[in-house]
Request: fold
Amino acid sequence: MNFTVKTCSAIEEMHIAPILKVPQSGSRGVSRSPAFSWLGFPQTTEYEFILARDAELREIVVKERVPASAYLYRGELDWGATYFWQVKAVKPVPSEPSAIGVFTVMLQPQPPAPAVVPPTVPPTTPFWIWLIIAVLTLLVIVIIVLCLVKR
Reply:
């Protein structure tokens, strides 16, 4: 008895759990309202998506059942915080949970620093200017006195 095996699957690799794609594990500077996606299974109609603040997935931010291999977080995550996420197929056949992904949200942009304006200091008059003013004043007085005396 002879038989031939043909390739009939477009899946490049076999997996028993969803494979997390976006955001990649270890990503930094992720949006506060991130989009998530994973490589699931062709016939799966429902996945369980978990987003948490801790690696043990106990401090849950979101735990939802979704019909596709993508999820958009509609709220805003904390600036600069680290989050963990995981996905598993639920229907029609449950799968193993995916690996736990980790990412860090972007840091809060800092407002531009105000321009530093040095304090204005009134200019000081140099000593020699005062000396010239004194000499000229003395000359004016001398001229006035001479004019009065010569009359």
In short: The two ends are 151 Å apart (CA to CA). Strands lie at 19-22, 27-30, 35-39, 46-52, 60-66, 70-72, 82-91, 101-105. The CA atoms of residues 44 and 93 lie 7 Å apart. The mean pLDDT is 87.
